[in-house]
Amino acid sequence: MGAVLLWAGAAAAQDLPRPLTDDDFLPFDMEQAAIGHQLFYDPILSGNRNITCAHCHHPDFGTSDGLSLGIGEGGVGLGPDRTPGTGADRIRKRIPRNAPGLWNLGAKDIHTLFHDGRLSKSDIYDNGFNSPAQEWLPEGLNSLLAAQALFPLTAQFEMAGNVAENQVTGAVHDRIDMGWPILAKRVRTDRRYGSAMVDAFDDVETAKDITITQIANALAAFMAIEWRSTDSPFDQYLAGDTAALSATQKNGMDLFYGKARCATCHSGPLMSDQKFHALGLPPFGPGRTRQWDPFVRDVGRMGESNRLEDAYRFRTPMLRNVALTAPYGHNGAFPDLESMIRHHLNPESSLSRWERAMAALPQVPWLQKADFVVWDDRFEMERQRNRIDIAPVDLSDAEIDNLVAFLNALTGTSVDTLPFGVPAGFIP
Predict the structure, then answer these.
(1) I need a surface site. Which of 69, 95, 280, 398 has the fewest CB within 10 A?
(2) pLDDT tens per residue across span 287-298
């Protein structure tokens, strides 16, 4: 209820944020980033050597994958054309949540990551982070982004593979940190990486010294440098170029920071309060269930905090290049910006009108019976409807069009000229 009151009581208009500058971003080493670039597109980091980080975070899809719920380990292909595999190698579960974009994750002010915030800066385990690895997180990580890079590698349905398929997933089944040394050995004994990492890292004297820490730090350096984006028309406007936005985009900006109340949550230079809000998005898919959940659902932040008031709340995403990262929402429930905006304006009405065809879910015959089973649980659906944090806002169709135009003005002008780009040898 507090979030509703905050939303409803927001000022009629908010000040624009200050522009992002170099000082807002952590420094990273370009030589390390070059190694991270190769690792990001290399299946060497997956348990069965059949999927890369890029399969779920590819620049062709705005550093996402163009799907509502991804097809992870065992799938074939890239983006919306990715198929779920066949035979014994086929996928056993859809990825429970939408693959988020990777823009500006090297910013200093970011303190929380993942849709449910299960990774954050913290001293709770005396290693600088509160994470699923708890006290077993490796030491020497250069950033929150480096810590984030570790967890897809240990996730069964993302990159690790199913138990009994390979050494990595078998080790992770015993304890989350036990798979990382296996991956590190692969990398340090690969002639493409050993000597390069010795040259790039001051704390590595020989290839034998390479651990998962250097691998994560290289991945973080690459992602932070490759997908830093601060040159959109909106950024140019904030920096003083008043002609950078069209009249329609300016109207949308005024709505965003005023009547539409978008900036209540999408606030500050990064356009996110990094907090958690329940929007009543249409549920589907396997959900990221807790250990003892008796049915399919996704309780969002509550799964990490164990606080009832956090039920069905998800982290506010940053918005640079948002026009490139469809579909939208923590589960990709909405195919375009207009439908996502309309949901924000009246979640209950939008939920009642939502159609299953709006979800970008490739056909997976052996999983489809479970895709929408949560809709048959009237008690769970009622719980989700009762946890909506935002109050309705009335906007005309023209005003919604203006908002869409403004969100398109958040697309960087250099997104197609990345520092590294996709390696020539990358095979989806």
Answers:
(1) 398
(2) 998 888 878 999
Q: Smallest Cα–Cα separation from 307: which of 97, 110, 117?
A: 117
Taking Cα atoms as reference points, which of 425, 412, 376 lies closest to residue 63? 412
Among the residue ranges 4-18, 316-330, 405-419, the one predicted with the least confidence is: 4-18
Q: Give the pLDDT confidence score for residue 3 in this predicted structure.
A: 41
β-pair partners for 277? 314
The tens digit of pLDDT for each residue in 155-194 reads: 999 999 998 999 999 999 999 999 999 999 999 999 999 9
With contact defined as beta carbons under 8 Å apart, do 284 and 236 qualify? no
Query: Is pLDDT above 50 for 7?
Result: no
Q: What are the backbone angles phi and psi of residue 129, rounded to the nearest 5°?
A: -140, 145
Is pLDDT above 60 for 31? yes
Distance between CA atoms of 202 and 200, rounded to whole angstroms?
Answer: 7
| Cβ-based neighbour number of residue 419 at 10 Å | 14
pLDDT at 11: 38
Which residues 6+ apart lie within 8 Å of 36 measured at CB?
Answer: 217, 218, 219, 220, 221, 222, 223
Residue 370 CA to residue 91 CA, distance in Å, equals: 14
Residues 6+ apart with CB under 8 A from 110: 144, 145, 270, 274
Calculate mean pLDDT across residues 31-43: 98
**Mean of all residue pLDDT scores within the chain:** 95
Spatial neighbors of 105 by CB under 8 A, at least 6 apart, are 113, 145, 148, 223, 224, 227
**Contact call for residues 297 and 283 (beta carbons, < 8 A):** yes
